[in-house]
Design goal:
About 50% of the residues lie in helices and about 15% in strands. The protein is α+β, with helices and mostly antiparallel strands and about 190 residues long. Helix 1 packs across helix 2. It starts with 13 loop residues before the first helix and ends with a helix.
Length: about 190
């Protein structure tokens, strides 16, 4: 029976377990995601989420309480300066565990634990819609002009940083596409 067994001992003595969780928490807060086993990730989530909650109130007492757990001034500074601002509106659930399969050596179930607000793949902010007005099709007939004065087109702009060569090729491709569509429209009118 498992009466009164609140936490997973992870096969370690108390001091080793606390040091391991402290080091893993520092790595998670520094790198924003780490690979580990599922059991360690679940124990780390229970360990690190209260620390992130304490970082929302920037007082001397909360800084000292977090420092007593993490033992790293740089990590505490980053937690209170950067991470606490990102998670200010979130009421918990600061971490996400994504299972990645099994380790080859001992078949342990592996996972990726990450801070939720630092993953751009799942956030809604990266897919903003931007509208752009363009005149496609060249000159229109008189009856088409009366029906539709301007044509608009919605273009979804990806805001990822690109290499310096990429925008020039995109612009060249857009100009070529517009020229081809203009040529097609003129041939259809004839």
């Amino acid at each position: 029976m498992r009466h009164g067994k609140k936490n997973n001992h992870l096969g370690r003595k108390t001091a080793h377990r606390k040091a391991m969780l402290s080091n893993m928490a520092c790595s998670l807060l520094l790198h924003k995601r780490i690979n580990t086993t599922v059991a360690k990730a679940k124990a780390l989530r229970v360990y690190v989420e209260p620390l992130i909650t304490k970082s929302k109130t920037d007082t001397t007492h909360s800084r000292r309480a977090v420092f007593s757990e993490l033992q790293s001034k740089e990590i505490v500074t980053e937690l209170f300066r950067d991470i606490s601002l990102k998670v200010a509106t979130r009421n918990g659930g600061y971490t996400r565990i994504i299972r990645t399969g099994y380790r080859l050596g001992d078949n342990a179930e592996m996972c990726l634990i990450e801070l939720v607000d630092y993953n751009d793949l799942y956030s809604n902010e990266s897919s903003k819609k931007v509208t752009r007005r363009s005149r496609r099709g060249g000159a229109k007939k008189a009856d088409d002009v009366a029906d539709d004065s301007t044509s608009t087109e919605e273009v979804v702009v990806d805001e990822t940083p690109e290499t310096p060569e990429a925008p020039a090729t995109d612009v060249a491709n857009d100009v070529q596409d517009e020229a081809e569509s203009t040529d097609e429209a003129e041939t259809k009118e004839d």
